[in-house]
């Protein structure tokens, strides 16, 4: 059979009984080599219109080099068309199914934990972490030298207290230049190098940002005192005389928060030291300046900010006296923070708008994949937990990722998606080993690492460092100079790296900026590393466990029991049978009877204990023994979830279920 093009009509003719020329082995030329005339001569008769060809010529075979029209002819035949259409619809249907599955998986997937949620945040007080140039004071290069220690602890985020250029009246919280590094700590190049090293090692950098005040050495303040524009209103000024201050407001560090300035012949406000004048956030230029500073560091690549003392940012413009806590106290004797109700100086209307503005700025830098920029706010609201909760973002307004939780136990209630935070020490508070007792430090670390929020560890807590004793005449902290009992020096002593001189912190032969704690020969990183029962190794194990156990890093937290000695809570994850019961003993040796609590199994196995010999033991729920200061992580298996029957004592930040068969998480 062969085919012939009929030039006149553009239709094709098939000639039955003639072999397909393309398949002939006679060495004859293929159709393509023949002229139209020759082809016509080879195939003179029996022409057929293509419309009828499909039905009549089902036996024909395709051949190489067939023209489009021929191809179409074959392709219309049912034996080709049918499979083709089936394949076509299969592809369409499977694409749609895949798309639907993808959309469903995305819609049902819970948010992944971000870097600031998935590991502890570690606070470094840079003066005290590691001295690289042997001047007795820690510095940025020193931090860089010690990054492996943070990797060892499975830390992913570091908050470094201020290293801006500063006269150091409040050890860096008095900033002279918000865009420069203090020479004590190094250079801008040291900062850039540190940041690169941190990112290379998978560590994020959170900077301290101090918006409420600057140093009185700052050029803005110097210009403001001289009423040089545009700086005249950069600070909070009020008319006064040396003897008659504007009102009764007092500083956090004690005495009046007003100081008379002889150059401007007015008083300026300072809610901390007189060397820390309060910036005037009612001035749009100041707000712009501070936002530009945030951008400056974000452009450099920092991963987030700890916003210092935010509740102080705004004051009431009317400057009225604040009410005394004790109305009968003679007003001239009122000179400390806790003797006034701070109705006009703390948490003023407009504060949260400012913070939300900064959050928006951070968010514009968070769009790069994997570069979420984080914000934590510091506000001591004491008993007013509602005020602390205001810093959390809502569905409508994004603000802080979390405020520091100085309450520890007051977990957020009723705020879906909000992330709790646990903090048990910082540069302003006595060390845990000293305030609670060193026998409790491992249990406290266990509590912090097994509660649901992001744990924050102050340098040295991972080895159980204690407050150092400082003679009254050697006090360096300005707050301590006002009230020695309030001195923050004891918790700022140099990090104890080893039993070498100066605890391996510094090679300075003439000492360190604050004394080293005498226990450094035994309480140090080197001595504890590799010793399974040390505070350091227990910290590390729990930090790793927190990351690997879903129940610990994103599961339910249920309050189970507490008495004067023991605090008991449970961690579980929907979809997982394995759960943990945690007993933190902050009192004396105790035996806890949990048999009255429904939903608990009869027996538990000790997964981790801060008392190593208890490791692997099994306990009956009617009698769970804990030693004084023991932290006990018990594991058990149950197909019943505890939170379903104890809803009022359970909390979860963002609910998600684990699906074992597919090894995926979904919103539930
Ligand atoms: C809070 C800081 O934590 C503290 O150390 C500092 O003295 C004050 N803010 C003033 O900046």
TrEMBL record:
<dbReference type="GO" id="GO:0016324">
    <property type="term" value="C:apical plasma membrane"/>
</dbReference>
<keyword id="KW-0735">Signal-anchor</keyword>
<keyword id="KW-1015">Disulfide bond</keyword>
<dbReference type="GO" id="GO:0004556">
    <property type="term" value="F:alpha-amylase activity"/>
</dbReference>
<keyword id="KW-0325">Glycoprotein</keyword>
<comment type="similarity">
    <text>Belongs to the glycosyl hydrolase 13 family.</text>
</comment>
<keyword id="KW-0868">Chloride</keyword>
<comment type="subunit">
    <text>Disulfide-linked heterodimer composed of the catalytic light subunit SLC7A9 and the heavy subunit SLC3A1. The heterodimer is the minimal functional unit. Assembles in non-covalently linked heterotetramers (dimers of heterodimers) and higher order oligomers; the oligomerization is mediated by SLC3A1 likely to prevent degradation in the endoplasmic reticulum and facilitate heteromer trafficking to the plasma membrane. Disulfide-linked heterodimer composed of the catalytic light subunit SLC7A13 and the heavy subunit SLC3A1.</text>
</comment>
<keyword id="KW-0812">Transmembrane</keyword>
<dbReference type="InterPro" id="IPR013780">
    <property type="entry name" value="Glyco_hydro_b"/>
</dbReference>
<keyword id="KW-0378">Hydrolase</keyword>
<dbReference type="InterPro" id="IPR017853">
    <property type="entry name" value="GH"/>
</dbReference>
<feature type="compositionally biased region" description="Basic and acidic residues">
    <location>
        <begin position="7"/>
        <end position="18"/>
    </location>
</feature>
<keyword id="KW-1003">Cell membrane</keyword>
<feature type="transmembrane region" description="Helical">
    <location>
        <begin position="86"/>
        <end position="108"/>
    </location>
</feature>
<keyword id="KW-1133">Transmembrane helix</keyword>
<keyword id="KW-0326">Glycosidase</keyword>
<dbReference type="GO" id="GO:0006865">
    <property type="term" value="P:amino acid transport"/>
</dbReference>
<feature type="region of interest" description="Disordered">
    <location>
        <begin position="480"/>
        <end position="502"/>
    </location>
</feature>
<dbReference type="GO" id="GO:0005975">
    <property type="term" value="P:carbohydrate metabolic process"/>
</dbReference>
<feature type="region of interest" description="Disordered">
    <location>
        <begin position="1"/>
        <end position="41"/>
    </location>
</feature>
<feature type="domain" description="Glycosyl hydrolase family 13 catalytic">
    <location>
        <begin position="123"/>
        <end position="492"/>
    </location>
</feature>
<keyword id="KW-0597">Phosphoprotein</keyword>
<dbReference type="GO" id="GO:0043169">
    <property type="term" value="F:cation binding"/>
</dbReference>
<keyword id="KW-0119">Carbohydrate metabolism</keyword>
<keyword id="KW-0813">Transport</keyword>
<dbReference type="InterPro" id="IPR006046">
    <property type="entry name" value="Alpha_amylase"/>
</dbReference>
<dbReference type="InterPro" id="IPR045857">
    <property type="entry name" value="O16G_dom_2"/>
</dbReference>
<dbReference type="InterPro" id="IPR006047">
    <property type="entry name" value="GH13_cat_dom"/>
</dbReference>
<keyword id="KW-0472">Membrane</keyword>
<feature type="compositionally biased region" description="Basic and acidic residues">
    <location>
        <begin position="26"/>
        <end position="36"/>
    </location>
</feature>
<dbReference type="Pfam" id="PF00128">
    <property type="entry name" value="Alpha-amylase"/>
</dbReference>
<protein>
    <recommendedName>
        <fullName>Alpha-amylase</fullName>
        <ecNumber>3.2.1.1</ecNumber>
    </recommendedName>
</protein>
<keyword id="KW-0029">Amino-acid transport</keyword>
